[in-house]
Amino acid sequence: MAEYPGLKQGHVIKTVKDGGGVVCLEDGACFKVYKGFHRLSNKWAAEHMMLIKTNPKNQEHPYKLINVHFNEQVEACWLEDEK
Fold first, then answer.
1. Which residues have C-beta within 8 Å of that of residue 55, sequence separation ≥ 6?
2. Alpha-carbon distance 73 to 57, whole Å?
């Protein structure tokens, strides 16, 4: 499994799909959000600033998406094939 190359860089949300289930960024990367966090990511919107960090304690959702606008974070996995 490859590591997402945009770690620790600033990003902007392009779209939020599936009721907060998928967050796509301006670089074309999409992340599948852990179901328990959909209530947070569902209210995120295009143009919100994001940071992406690793989440080493969770192998199924190895990334943390941090919404700077709301100061919220969710656990997610990178959908490499979606790019």
1. 61, 62, 63, 64, 75
2. 15
Tokens for 70?
A: 């709301």
Q: Is residue 58 part of a domain?
A: yes
Asked if residue 31 belongs to a domain, the reply is: yes
**One pLDDT digit (tens) per residue for the chain, 83 residues:** 689 999 988 999 999 999 999 999 999 999 999 999 999 999 999 999 999 999 999 999 999 999 999 999 999 999 985 54
Segments forming the whole domain that contains residue 27 = 10-82
Token look-up 């939020």 returns 16
In a domain, 66, yes or no: yes
Q: Which is nearest to 13 in space by CA: 38, 41, 35, 36?
A: 41
